Amino acid sequence: MRSDAGERTLVMSDGDLTGLVARAMVSRPGETVVWLLPRSGTRRRAAAKAQGAALGFETVEADARQGAFAGMPEELIDLFLACRSADRHGCDRVVLPACRGMDADGIYAVDSAIADVGRFLAEAGVRREPEIVTPLLDLTTEQVADLALDLGVAMELCWWDGRFAGLCDEGDPDAERWVWEGAMHRACRAFGRRERVFESPGSPIATD
User: How far apart are CA 142 and CA 188, in angstroms?
Assistant: First the structure.
């Protein structure tokens, strides 16, 4: 995913592996802004900031939710806020690192948000609508894991790693970590990779 000279890119992130992979795919780190999703908890936000620092990206906080969002899908709210921040930070492109694989309904929800966001941006007085790209949308977790191995991303920078264990957050970090460890093991088998994937304590992937 290349960026033209002078083009700035905003990458949406919640500290997960998908956002880390999307950032690693951007060819001009100095022209990239990492945007923290507003629904991210303390642990996810710390991870996203650590990822940005490790890759040399500027990290910005999401704008406060100002506007009539009642009844709007979360995908649309997040995308609207990201595009509004992109306009304020001079970004020409927004990277939405959603990974839905074979989930047709999930892909439709993301596509619908992209189709609808322009109207809400115009109503909010946003001067320009950025290009929105979804490089991981139709990939499976195994394909994203394979890509992560190709790019050499540091999984320990994801929110479910033990380095962020002292911070509170929603969700189950062990379950999320095991999802991606399992995906990496399956990717290694499916694509004939020789990498040894780390197995965290208690991981069920030994019998995967």
Answer: 9
